[in-house]
Amino acid sequence: MCPNQKGVAVTLAILILSAVLVIALGSSAMLLRELKFARESNFYVRAFFAADSGIEKILTLRDNPLSFTTCTSSASPCALPNGSEYWVVVRASGALKPDGTTCSASNFCIESNGRYQGTRRVIEVNY
Q: What share of residues in the chain are helix, strand, coil (percent, to 5)?
């Protein structure tokens, strides 16, 4: 062994371990991000189906959906057994929406909002 090569093995070992550490940290960061997304995707699904429950509730009142007076705002939503909640706004044809457009449906515009763990989904049905 030459006297000027005494630290080469240690230097190579440090470089290789550093590369392995960088790969491990990068992989764990990606894994944690994917796990968070997988958990929250369940929230999206539950919020969507809560909104769908609101649509179904209104469709049971198809003859007079404007008679639906409960669960009509985020301040007074209807709770579901799984912890999600929904609220529904029904507008007659030609009524003004909050975005400034009018309801262009033949009969009614139904907007149902579902919420679960801070995730919100909205379904709008025109009929």
A: 45, 25, 30
